[in-house]
Amino acid sequence: MLSVAVCDDEARECCSLVLQIRKMIGELNISCIVRSFGSGRELLEAKENFDIIFLDVIMDGVDGLETARLIREKAYDRFLVFVSSSREYVFDAYEAEPFWYLVKPVTDQKLKRILQKILSKMEIQPQEFILVSKDREKKKIFLGDIYYFEVRGRVMDIHCTDGTVTYYEKMEKLEKELQGKDFFRCHKSYLVNLKYVSGYSRQELILDNGEKIVIARRRYEGFCREILRYMRTNGGIL
Questions:
Q1: Are 18 and 34 in contact (CB under 8 A)?
Q2: C-alpha angle with apex 198: 226 to 140, nearest 5 degrees?
Q3: Predicted TM-score of the model (pTM)
Q4: 2-7 sheet: strands from edge to edge
Q5: What are phi and psi of 162, to 5 degrees?
Q6: Cβ atoms 190, 213 nearer than 8 A
Q7: Distance between CA atoms of residues 220 and 207, nearest Å
Q8: Long-range pairs, 204-212, Cβ under 8 A, ≥24
Q9: What CA–CA distance (Å, rounded) separates 190 from 149?
Q10: In whole angstroms, how far apart are CA 6 and each of 3, 14, 56, 64, 80?
């Protein structure tokens, strides 16, 4: 999951940029966490290793330029983006080798273009997802976060890395929609994400989270072909 930090001692501007980033990355279908920091010292004391850091240049205490220098000493490979209301510090910022220097106000168009450039450098591709209707609302669930689907009558459970989502869906329709997406129907009641299969026997599949899913006898050979194809495609077999 992509992790982003926004550091600005102006609370309103910091919050505004956080919301913009979440919106832009959401539109690019990338799963991410965005955290805000009110000072350079607060950011430097954080335990997370952020992939992208947006830094205000002019801050009380440890300013953005000094914060960037200290970040570079610890983690040189982070993508730094300076944000400032002035162009005055552009040349001073070069020393920290930022990816970009943004002049406020930060428009959605500028921000999206920069994020797309960074994601391209990181070789992060947009994630595919499904939309689930529940309680008259639409919920986006990324395919990469799904362990497996389980059908119980007319009810479908989506077992995800962060919990279970329940809604109404037909397994046949779901299986057809996910064809070619690295999901395999190993039993009439289960559609499993091959990404999370860590082992298997003729009777069951073992997932990374330790769960065991029954595999139908007549589907075993088909599963073997699919898991072998998946491993070859994703570097599991040379």
A1: yes
A2: 75
A3: 0.59
A4: 32-37, 2-7, 52-56, 79-84, 100-103
A5: -115, 20
A6: yes
A7: 16
A8: 207/147, 207/148, 208/147, 209/147, 209/161, 211/147, 211/148, 211/159
A9: 6
A10: 10, 7, 8, 11, 10
User: What digits encode the pLDDT tens for the residues 103-154?
Assistant: 999 999 999 999 989 988 887 766 788 989 877 788 889 898 999 999 999 8
**Listed residue (207, 167, 216) closest to 189, CA to CA:** 216
How are strands ordered across the β-sheet holding 146-152? 163-168, 155-160, 146-152, 190-193, 183-187
Block residue for tokens 């002035």:
86
Which DSSP category does 170 fall into?
-
Q: How far is CA 22 from CA 15, 16, 48, 129, 188, in A?
A: 11, 10, 18, 17, 38
In the chain, the DSSP E strands lie at: 2-7, 32-37, 52-56, 79-84, 100-103, 129-134, 137-142, 146-152, 155-160, 163-168, 183-187, 190-193, 197-200, 204-207, 212-214
